[in-house]
UniProtKB/TrEMBL annotation:
The lineage of its organism: Bacteria, Pseudomonadati, Thermodesulfobacteriota, Syntrophobacteria, Syntrophobacterales. One of its GO terms (biological process) is ribosome biogenesis. Its cofactor is Mg(2+). Residues 1-159 form the Obg domain. It is found in: Cytoplasm. An essential GTPase which binds GTP, GDP and possibly (p)ppGpp with moderate affinity, with high nucleotide exchange rates and a fairly low GTP hydrolysis rate. Plays a role in control of the cell cycle, stress response, ribosome biogenesis and in those bacteria that undergo differentiation, in morphogenesis control. GO terms for molecular function: GTP binding; GTPase activity; magnesium ion binding; ribosome binding. Residues 160-331 form the OBG-type G domain. One of its GO terms (cellular component) is cytoplasm. This is GTPase Obg. Its EC number is 3.6.5.-. GTP binds at residues 166-173, 191-195, 213-216, 283-286, 312-314. The gene is obg. The keyword Metal-binding applies. Pfam families: GTP1_OBG (PF01018), MMR_HSR1 (PF01926).
Length: 338
């Protein structure tokens, strides 16, 4: 299945049915009064979040969605049936935005959450509605109203507790595969990950949490360089970040350079990402053979002010320490939210 996280669609509520012009016609009532029924209301277009969908792929092949129109009124005071609502199922985490202004119209971030995207038009009143003391036989009725029309941008932001960030080839895919059941493509070259990957992580008796791996970032990502810019939005909702650094590729003279480069991209993209709590994980430490070198790297990264953990996603060394630190940080985030 292709991962599609953006789609532009147009939705139209159903038009209301027309009111009816009718008069009673009975054997012994030669001049019966008006009995035209009302038209039915047009159906609404409704977005509903569901866990059964993980992509907006369906909306790439069809742009216009129109709810059913209301039926017309009939004689003998028969009102027209209302049009059926059109329910569009979207993945949990979908944003609906106004195409022109970018305003967020709805944030469907819980399963079963609904939002009326376009309301159906009101049905027209039949001529029986227009009888007055001076107008006993009105020969007109209302037409049904047009439904609302809206053009909007659907944007999917994955819901995860922990987001993995770092340069391409830092080992994010290997890490998420090591701590969860996720099976992303893994290879020893940049941009192996082309779509976000989600994995559910279990550690001890702590509640399971969801980890998201996005394509690696490069310098200038917030301006569109590389692949990561398209997917940074998927970690905006995360509670904490894991900044993964390839310890085996760090310069002896400036080991913090790759860390600073990624942090600049996060802060440039949004204040929200720059302010999130994070853990720095020095990955591939099994390839750093000198003990003194390992200690120097840990000391350098402790100056960032964030917790630092030495790991090897490939050999799984240090992963329990990383998971323990994540569980502690997530508990602190939940406590602060109460």
């Amino acid at each position: 299945m292709r991962f599609i996280d953006e789609a532009k669609i147009q939705v139209e509520g159903g038009r209301g049915g027309n009111g009816c012009v009718s008069f009673r016609r009975e054997k012994y009532v030669p001049r019966g009064g008006p009995d035209g029924g009302d038209g039915g209301k047009g159906g609404d277009v409704i977005l509903e979040a569901t866990e059964r969908k993980q992509t907006l792929l369906d909306f790439r092949y069809r742009r216009l969605y129109r709810a059913e129109r209301g039926r017309h009124g009939q004689g003998k005071a028969k009102h027209g049936r209302g049009g059926k609502d059109l329910v569009l199922h979207v993945p949990v985490g979908t944003l609906a935005k106004d195409v022109e202004t970018g305003e967020v119209l709805a944030d469907l971030n819980r399963p079963g959450m609904r939002w009326v995207a376009a309301r159906g038009g009101r049905g027209g009143r039949g001529n029986a509605r227009f009888v007055t003391s001076t107008r006993q036989a009105p020969r007109y009725a209302e037409e049904g109203e047009e439904g609302e029309t809206r053009e909007m941008q659907l944007e999917l932001k994955l819901l995860a507790d922990v987001g993995l960030v770092g340069l391409p080839n830092a080992g994010k895919s290997t890490l998420i595969a090591a701590v969860s059941a996720a099976r992303p493509k893994i290879a020893d070259y940049p941009f192996t990950t082309l779509i976000p990957n989600l994995g559910v992580v279990h550690y001890g008796d702590a509640p399971p949490f969801v980890m998201a791996d996005i394509p690696g970032l490069i310098e200038g990502a917030h301006e569109g360089a590389g692949l990561g810019i398209r997917f940074l939005k998927h970690i905006e909702r995360t509670k904490v970040l894991v900044h993964l650094v390839d310890a085996s590729a760090l310069s002896p003279t400036d080991p913090l350079a790759p860390y600073r480069a990624i942090e600049r991209e996060l802060e440039s993209y949004s204040d929200t990402l720059g302010e999130k709590d994070r853990i720095v994980a020095l990955n591939k430490m099994d390839l750093v053979t000198e003990e003194a070198r390992r200690e120097d790297l840990l000391a350098a990264y402790r100056t960032t002010g964030h917790p630092v953990v030495a790991v090897s996603a490939l050999t799984r060394r240090g992963l329990p320490d990383l998971l323990k630190a994540l569980v502690r940080l997530l508990r602190d985030e939940e406590a602060d939210a109460l």
